[in-house]
């Protein structure tokens, strides 16, 4: 189905952000996100509260997205949604609404893998910004995922490295929680790290086989470090916060890039693109850019397409739509769906 113009409405509800976007082919006309502040006091996402908030947010968010795009729902050519992975209750809200809307408008329904969306966000038409050429290595880093993916085509992807336990985003957030920082702690660590000494406090580099990652041991090391130092000096965290954050960030970046370097060597692919919420981290962006000197082709998405958003779901759906793909109404949410 190679139509000249297609309008696709995309819904993303995998975690705690209710998002809707409208795309005209690969161009984003609107990209609306409603966050959920209620989780901050719990120090993490509460699934039941997340699904309830999605139910109250989804109609206003979709209405606003259509309004900003300047089109009516009758002009839409397809409805897309995140099928998984994610929180079951949250996914069900987006899935159910997308099915109902597609059925009411009698237009195709397109399911999208959340991590495919993060990878394909690089193909959004963003004022002529260069796009990666196939094949390339995609590094997806977020609160729930840390993966190295070999991307041969828009929907031909192979995971060649993944975390064996926790994700890098969780390592940032849990380390920040130990330091008394609010949720999410990752952005706060990034900000404080800019004023600290990254070599002040050495942390261990966890060992994981092949191109895989492990972050649980790192979190434990930070816990023991904080407990030990606070016992000796009660004001240790307050007096050394910037240096601790800089050291944590430095080590996590080192862990991340050791395996990325290895993946480039093993595959011979020097085109590397990052995606996911943690790709907003300034230290990671700076480190990736430094590899340009080694001949790498580096791609970093705009900040608005790093955290969970519906535009990335829409661009993935667009490339499926062009091939004539359509999901059946029996399609269900899949919280643990594989790549």
Structural class: alpha/beta
Mean pLDDT comes to: 92
What's the total count of β strands? 10
Terminal-residue CA separation: 24 Å
Principal-axes shape call: globular
Number of helices: 9
> Approximately how much helix is present in the residues?
40-55%
- Give the percentage of residues in beta strands: 15-25%
Biggest beta sheet attributes = 5 strands, mixed
Low-pLDDT stretches: none
Cα gyration radius (Å): 20 Å
Strand order of the largest sheet: 3-2-1-4-5
| SSE topology string | EEEHEHEHEEEHHHHEHEH
Give your account of this protein's structure:
This protein has 339 residues and is α/β, with parallel strands linked by helices. It contains nine helices and ten strands. The strands form two sheets. Strands 3-2-1-4-5 form a five-stranded mixed β-sheet, sandwiched between helices. A five-stranded mixed β-sheet has the order 8-7-6-9-10, sandwiched between helices. Helix 1 packs parallel to helix 2 and helix 3 crosses helix 9. The longest helix has 32 residues. It is globular, with a radius of gyration of 20 Å.
List the helices and strands and how they pair.
Elements: E1 7-12, E2 18-24, E3 27-34, H1 47-69, E4 78-84, H2 88-105, E5 109-113, H3 114-120, E6 136-141, E7 146-153, E8 156-162, H4 168-178, H5 186-193, H6 216-232, H7 236-267, E9 271-275, H8 282-290, E10 297-299, H9 311-322
Parallel strand pairs: 1-4, 4-5, 6-9, 9-10
Antiparallel strand pairs: 1-2, 2-3, 6-7, 7-8
